[in-house]
Amino acid sequence: MRFREAVLLTSGLNRLKAFYGQVLELPEAPGGAGRVAFQLGGTKLVFKEAGPGREPFYHIAIHIPENKFDEAKVWLKSRVALNKVEGRDEAFFENWNAHSVYFEDPAGNIVELIAHHRLNNRTEHPFSSADLLGIAEIGIATDDVVSLADQLHRLGVPDWREGSGDFAPLGDENGMFIVVREGRQWFFSDKDAEFHPVEAVVEGLGTIKFERDNIRRVAHSG
Fold this sequence. Notes:
The protein is mostly beta strands and 222 residues long. The protein has helices spanning 13-23, 69-77, 145-154, and strands spanning 3-10, 28-29, 35-40, 43-49, 59-63, 91-93, 98-104, 110-116, 134-142, 167-172, 175-181, 198-202, 206-211, 214-219. This is VOC family protein.
């Protein structure tokens, strides 16, 4: 499953424009009024103005080449403060065969760089922002993980690993929806998951909109 576009809400449009453009050095893409967008490898990442009184935040993960985790961590650490848990600033997921490092952007989004070692995306050149290869995960909070996972199944999104009432990864190594119980603490963060609307364009499935207690597919692409 591959994400071609992800649209997230934010109250910090100007801060994110500066951060993703100047700190992470991503090329800006057409976004439209009230939006800012960046080309993140194969994914267009769009931030949309949330409106007054709203402070949305999300969890997203970004693919990096499977053999460049150490380089990517050094590159990232020179630009942002890394999130830590019990003194650790990285994680290895044995069942997924993946390494990750985490940070927060200026709007409070919990961002992860992940190297899936089973993916055929290794490179030999020095790591740079061009090696931020696309969105790997989009976190979705809900008060009913099983029900939301079932809705995704009906749209053709498979389970990635066995889930539970608190956590369910759906998709595959190329792209996943990470469905979690609302109020569950995000990994490598002190923030509890909150639901905020998400729009994702998924290759082969079309545009999927996540609204409170509902998923809608508003378009389909072959």
